[in-house]
Structures are given as structure tokens and as C-alpha cells.
Amino acid sequence: MPRIVPEDKARQGRWGWHTFRILIAALLLAFIAWGIAEIYGNMIDKTSTTEQGELPRVEQGESPQG
């Protein structure tokens, strides 16, 4: 004898929208974190090149002083 199941319990897509919203929120947070990491990485790259400065060039045939 088949069991009668109420409609709200028989539906299989009940948690679909909830899961979809969580996945979209996680994706947005990942993009935000990626953007922050890109900006921070570019900022570090620019400061490291300016702090090092330019090395003095040694002409060919000259011996370095030091």
C-alpha cells in the first residue's frame, strides 16, 4: 500500500533557493577577496621597486669599487 506524502514534504527543490543564495554570496566574497589581494599585491610590488632604488651601473672594463 503506497504511503501518501504531503506536498510540502514531497517537493525536492525546497532548499534550492537557499543553497543558491549561499553559493552566490560565497562567490561574491571570493571575488572581493581576490580584488583586495590584487590591489595589495600591486601596492607591494610598487613599493619594493621604489625602496630598492636603482643599482649603479658598471661600465665594461671597469672594476667595481668597494
Model regions low in confidence, pLDDT < 50 over at least 5 residues: none
Helix content: 55-70%
Radius of gyration: 30 Å
> What count of helical segments does DSSP give?
2
Sheet with the most strands, sense and barrel status: none
Average residue-wise pLDDT: 80
Report the principal-axis shape. rod-shaped
Order of helices and strands: HH
Structural class: mainly alpha
What's the end-to-end separation, in Å? 97 Å
| Beta-strand share of residues | under 5%
Counting DSSP E segments of at least 2 residues, the number of strands comes to 0
Walkthrough of the structure:
With 66 residues, the chain is an all-alpha fold. It has a domain at 19-45. Helices cover 62% and strands 0% of the residues. The chain contains 2 helices and no strands. The chain is rod-shaped, with a radius of gyration of 30 Å. The model has no long low-confidence stretch (mean pLDDT 80).
What labels would you give this structure?
66 residues; mainly alpha; 62% helix; rod-shaped
Short overview:
With 66 residues, this protein is mainly alpha-helical. The chain is built from 2 helices and no strands.
Question: What are the SSEs and their pairings?
Answer:
Layout: H1 7-10, H2 16-52
